[in-house]
């Protein structure tokens, strides 16, 4: 019980309590940052324990939902704090999550897996269904607001925002039903066996303890990120980067658990699990975040800019096309991983220097 996975969540929560409502500077910022990183790493550990207990593909849903809870909580709190650029924070974060997952995470998984196993195989039925749903939700949430004429700017009217939120939630709900009930076999790994299959699942007591510690970690991550956000924004302003990079920083932080779990699965030649995590987390990021933010915006009457600019739309369209070509054959090699990572590098470069 004295393992780091128990100590870190408690320490992170204590740091949150001691720093809540304060504006840390200097050494205290470093302490908050270390506690935040530790809480994220502990979160993925406990989420994986719970996921191992419930099995696939339900386990990947737990990781995806955990990341979405962090993302939604962080966006809502930062939006409620106001400040310049808060109306576009949800858009920047969700778009960044899409690009990080579909290019960064998938590219890294393909690279690591192909270097070790040469050719990677996965189920086309499940991956293409996830990609089709993700493309539809991303277009509804991030592209169409730039072309509607009811309201000025890249925004939806209240009715349009409500429709987009409901549509996103419906699409995500049907996808989860298909993944976990109707066509569960489409999302199971192609290769049977593997080291995880021979490991006994944790006991119900261990899984419940990990579930409680996971909740502790999620609360600590959201709270500590809010505490550290002024320092993040100050650093971005100091280097002269655009404010949209705040969304990139948030998305990279909350997707750290997904990335670690997905890369480990790819290294074990379980790229189907990696794709379940990657595409599932991107779909959850949009399908759950947009409805939640829409409700908050409608209730509070706050402005919400969702539409992407031309540069971001090109990157989004290119990512969808390349990802479709990657998953269509059901097999991938080092080449596909390299293409995705180059696109990810282009996204990061253009985020800093548009």
Q: Which structural traits does this protein have?
A:
single chain; 354 residues; mainly alpha; two-stranded antiparallel sheet; 12 helices; 75% helix; NaCa_Exmemb
Instruction: Give the overall shape, derived from the CA principal axes.
Output: globular
The low-confidence parts are 193-198
CA-atom Rg in angstroms:
20 Å
CATH homologous superfamily classification: NCX, central ion-binding region
CATH architecture: Up-down Bundle
Mean model confidence by pLDDT? 82
Physical arrangement of strands within the biggest beta sheet: 1-2
Count of alpha/pi helices: 12
Note the topology.
Blueprint: H1 4-19, H2 27-54, H3 58-80, H4 89-117, E1 120-121, H5 124-143, H6 158-182, H7 204-238, H8 245-254, H9 256-267, H10 271-300, H11 310-327, E2 331-332, H12 334-352
Antiparallel strand pairs: 1-2
Helix pairs in contact: 1-2, 1-7, 2-3, 2-7, 2-9, 3-7, 3-10, 4-8, 4-9, 4-10, 4-11, 4-12, 5-6, 5-10, 5-11, 6-10, 7-8, 9-10, 11-12
